[in-house]
Design goal:
72% of the residues lie in helices and 1% in strands. The protein is elongated, with a radius of gyration of 34 Å.
Amino acid sequence: MQLCLSPPLRWFITATSRHYVDRLFDPDPQKVLQGVIDMKNAVIGNNKQKANLIVLGAVPRLLYLLQQSSSSAELRAECAVVLGSLAMGTENNIKSLVDCHIIPALLQGLLCLDLVFIEACLRCLRTVFVSSVTPVQLLYTDHTVIPHLMSLLSRSQRTQEYVTQIFSHCCKTPEHQTVLFNHGAIQNIAPLLTSLSYKVRMQALKCFSVLAYENTQVSMTLVNVLVDGELLCQVLVQMMQRDKPIEMQLTAAKCLTYMCRAGAIGTDDNCIVLKTLPCLVRMCSKDRLLEERVEGAETLAYLIEPDVELQRIASVTDHLVAMLADYFKYPSSVSAITDIKRVRRARARARTHSWDRLIYSLLDHDLKHAHELRQAAFKLYASLGSNDEDVRKKITETENMMDRIVSGLSESSIKVRLAAVRCLHSLSRSVQQLRTSFHDHAVWKPLMKLLQNAPDEVLIMASSTLCNLLLEFSPSKEPILESGVIELLCSLTQSDSPALRVNGIWALMNMAFQADQKVKVEIMRALGTEQLFRLFSDPDTNVLMKTLGLLRNLLSTRPHIDQIMSSHGKQIMQAVTLILEGEHSIEVKEQTLCILANIADGNTAKELIMTNDDMLQKVKYYMGHSNVKLQLAATFCISNLVWNEENGSQERQDKLREMGFVDILHKLTQASDSNLSDRAKTAMQQYLA
């Protein structure tokens, strides 16, 4: 049943709202003050009333009264309180307040000497900045604001709580971290960790957490900070004790995690191994609140992501791998009962809301939590299984795990899809899993579907996973090839994203390894020599290296070498010349010389080198290079050219002798590097046979 306001009732609310606004314009200051106080009482918990007052123009008048020096201190404070209450409504309310320039007005109000007014302004600013729709950059526009806020930390417990909360919510970028750091955030906030007020301690802790995130400078400073004579790390460890509030334990663990990831604390430090990691694992248990389980798992995933030993320790702590399986069981029958109780309470409370809207709201709530739990579990599984084979096996053997990952790839939530493919990518590093679980569950099918239409961040992870599925020992390679993946991968090589270009080429490189001639020809056709040339000129070295790897795999086995070089030889030789003449790394030039060595192994393709004196001089130059890797690759090329079991070997040997290659080979037989001297001796033997 839809509950509607009857026209007379709607008129009454609007008229009442108009009356509140009209009273703000009364010439009697005392009546204006009483009007503001009555308005404050009227809007508490009443979003409809708040919206009406905003529409009727209450905000500009309240801001005017707040900024007038002729207004009494009490009136100005009450105006700030009402504005703060309006800000506690909907996102649209916040947008309206910001559009009315509430932030500059409140920041100006902080210059007043009256503490009650300052606290009211800060409380309102806190409410506005906590909202996700408020542009946080507004706090940094005026360079005098941050130092003034720092100075207010000494005024009262309320100013400490509000200022640190504002900082926590407005510190979104490395630039913000730097501004706060340079204005003494650490020195000013550190003493607050011992405040008698729990709220102040928590906001100070949260502030340090956001300051330390991925910031080496801040983290290195924090690790040396003394709080009441104790190092900050020791204080944070105490805050993680089981008798402390869960919120405090979790935030302290996050702070230490961020300091560790920023390099300020070693991954083998006791405060990480024996305190932070176990604390975060505790947060994942099913007796914790849903939000705590999500935050605990995501923070733990971030902590252990780069460290093999932490991954191993976490995997055997409190049956974590099995514990995470419960993340996929929400909503459960227990949560359904809780929801029914919540519906009854909400229905009793909200007489002006329809039953249907309440049901949809609660369903959305459940769906949001279900998504967050699955996302967190996938992230943590991805970190746990990124290196250790035994841990990967344990994950895939967890109840219905592969089915859950496959389902996750087609979730409605983009964040869940990304986390699921990240987990799949982690597991795809296992040869055993590629041959068993991945094959049994045909994971390539949903992965290919995901690649058809997804944001770049999902495409990057999905294409990276595909690279592993295209390795020669993967049973998924053949069905993926048959699905027409080559065109898709070639299109990725044209992406603006360097990561997608790398993955596209990488997948083609894996596909070309020991492939049939038909596959290689199709890759060259779909990619085209023009795009190949563009990739050889790519500014990203990773793209260039993978392109060279692709070409090297294409130019393997003599029939394939000869066939490809007969069709694209001129363009390939031009690309090789450009790279050998260019300013490239040793690794890039080594790969290029290896390609040249492969070409030299062809029956007919080698003539493209022998008839190119400029190319031979380049090979000669690299045989005498100071880098052994380049010498070895160049010598390999000459060894293939002079091999005496092939047609025309005598003529090639004679030409190379005339060009001075034999003298160089003779010198290289005395090289200190055994691989180089052996290769030179092998080439010399072709002349003696």
